[in-house]
Amino acid sequence: MLGSACAADEAVRHALTRTADTGAGDALPELVREVFGAIRAVPEQAARHRREAHAGSWLPEPVLTEGGAMGALGALETVESRESVSMARLVALERLSSAERAAYVLRETFGYGSAETAVVLGLPEVQCRALRRRARQRVRESATGVDLPWPQRRQLAEDLMRAASHADQQALAELLADDVVAWSDGGGVPGTARRPALGAAKVARFLAGLISQAPAGTRGRIVEINGDAAVLATTGDVVVAVVAPEFGPQGLVGIRTVADPGRLVFLNRQWARRGLRR
To answer: Of 21, 43, 82, 179, which is the most exposed, with the fewest CB atoms less than 10 Å away?
Structure first.
């Protein structure tokens, strides 16, 4: 709903405080109503202004999802569960109105029917069904990736990391679809672009340049981010960037890079907890 793990965490905590006196049997439905109500109360214009004023492309905050890193949600073991938190899906949902997004998420992620959705959103059932239909159509139209077996996705991400680390533009171009697009959410970090790069040659140059700008001692590794294989770059114990590829039938069709420190706060918390568990 928010594309921000930190904001989502805060929204749930506030809702839990407001529903603390609710009976245990009704706690979850009341919590859902509180959370979705608070999210939808944010004016559309204000949310749009934040995106437009953002330095570079707006991208969701990356979240570590491997090995049950999302806590009670557990591991994302199905295609549907992985897609529900994928970078591409969250970007598509961000383009919907908050009402469309809520109707879609309640149905597709939480399995709510029209009657339950109407209660949560305070809207007529017929309107909720229309919102869901529009949202489904728009999400379907934005889909460009394909489902590949996890070993193949991991291998492609490793090939991408290896080619980028050697600034091998030819090897990079061979991994990319001709019409690949690279988006960068850098918050002004050197080497990140404010506008998307289009086409294999330009994206290969962008990725090679991104690596050349990395601080000394930066290390890359393949981890599961938002349900998919991605490159996580660390300097010491700090995550400094995430490069998330989108897999297509003719190669990588999208590259989403998040290097804005402010959008890596939640992921760094996860990474620190992971280190403590080892």
So the answer is: 21
Letter for the amino acid at 222? I
Which pair of structure tokens corresponds to residue 175?
């991994």
Helix, strand, coil percentages for the chain (3-state, nearest 5): 55, 15, 30
Distance CA 74, CA 85 (A): 13
Return the CATH architecture of domain 150-277.
Roll (3.10)
Band of the pLDDT at 71, cuts 50, 70, 90?
very low
Segments making up each domain of the chain, as ranges: 5-142, 150-277
In whole angstroms, give the CA distance from residue 63 to residue 239.
12
pLDDT per residue as tens digits for the range 250-276:
899 999 999 999 999 999 999 998 875
Phi, psi angles (nearest 5°) of residue 29: -60, -40
Tokens linked to 72: 């009670």
Three-state helix/strand/coil letters over the chain: CCCCHHHHHHHHHHHHHHCCCCCHHHHHHHHHHHHHHHHHCCCHHHHHHHHHHCCCCCCCCCCECHHHCCHHHCCCCCHHHHHHCCHHHHHHHHCCCHHHHHHHHHHHCCCCCHHHHHHHHCCCHHHHHHHHHHHHHHHHHHCCCCCCCHHHHHHHHHHHHHHHHCCCHHHHHHHEEEEEEEEEECCCCCCCCCCCEECHHHHHHHHHHHHHCCCCCEEEEEEEECCEEEEEEEECCEEEEEEEEEEECCEEEEEEEECCHHHCHHHHHHHHHHHHHC
For residues 147 and 117, the model is more confident at 117
